[in-house]
Amino acid sequence: MNEDFAFLLPVVMGLFGAAFLIVARFGIRSSAYWGAGILSAALGFVVPLSIPALPVKPVAMTAEALFFAAFFLYGQALLVHFGRSTLFWQRLSLALLAYVVIAYVVIVAENLQLELFVSDLTCVILLATAVAAVRHRARRPIDKLLFWVMVFVCAENLLRVIVFLFLASPITMDQFAGSDYSFVMQITATVGAMVMAMTALAVMTVNVVERHRNDADSDSLTGLLNRRGFDRAAAGLLAGEAQDVALILFDIDHFKRINDDYGHAVGDEVIRSIAEVAAAVLPGGSILARFGGEEFVALLPNHTAARALDVAGRMQAAIRKKNWRNLGLEGGVTASFGIDALGRGDHSIYESIGRADGAMYEAKRTGRDRIVSAGGTTSPAAHPHLRIIRKQ
């Protein structure tokens, strides 16, 4: 049974490692670290089995190097997943220092108990430092599960260190492969590795799904929501507890002239800049989307039409003040705004969008660079709308 476990663990871990490397091809960076770490651990278990003819000491040193690499990579995968870029060199230095100590213990002292103690304790520290660094970053339920699974892996390895140090009978390096401790280590390592690998793989799969969904819901030019993403976000907002919801629809004035006179590359930069200005002005919790072409829509929870009119005014002023000459525009850029508040009798948000659209086109009809509310309130331009000067 001992031999069955000895061969089973690296095979199963190898399959998980390969799965992670496949997921990494979808652009999930942390998945490559998980895959490399799991494969390193699998090789660490298989080395003593595949080359039994070699002396014990070189085999032990090779296995230790692979286990250190595995736990270093597990921790790195965790840090990358949660967006932490710290501790790389500190953890690497610890692994190298511990490996020097292991080399002395194995080659000079020939003390198996001390070797296993230093080895397991180093693995715990390599992983625990990463776990501690991300303890406040797990917000999604799946991320919280991953965090606590990694805590379990640390605890399982630490418990094994304590048990072996205080309860296990002394054994030599030659006796280790067939010892009860080796068998227990394989069982506990199998449980810990499988739980960790399955949880991490579930997290990576969720990340891939969310990334593809975000790509489908996002506008590639501005990074804002597209119409599909807006529909999803609006449905979630309207299903919540927001009392008043207002809507701002706005469109870049004379955008066709910008494309015709300065080229589509400049036009794209104008659209990006308008998106940045609008996002900076909108209050927290708002939903902003590019609805197509040069048209944008913003949904403001807990805002009346009057408050939305004030937000649109600040947005209009920010667009006017922006230095558009940086993009090569000799004139300026303005936008026309339509405001509406969602009514209780509306069957769809698109009824409100339709009213805001009518108000926006009234703003364009009466001179552009204006804000018109579907309720009849109008904010005139503070000055005649800026003219786009064509290049000669």
TrEMBL record:
Stored Gene3D superfamilies: 3.30.70.270
Superkingdom of the source species: Bacteria
Keyword Methyltransferase: no
Keywords: Membrane, Transmembrane, Transmembrane helix
Stretches assigned to the GGDEF domain: 243-376
Enzyme Commission numbers on file: 2.7.7.65
Keyword Transmembrane: yes
Transmembrane region(s): 6-26, 33-53, 59-80, 92-110, 116-134, 146-171, 183-204
InterPro entries to which the protein is assigned, alphabetical: Diguanylate_Cyclase, GGDEF_dom, Nucleotide_cyclase, Rev_trsase/Diguanyl_cyclase
Name of the protein: diguanylate cyclase
Annotated source species: Mycoplana rhizolycopersici
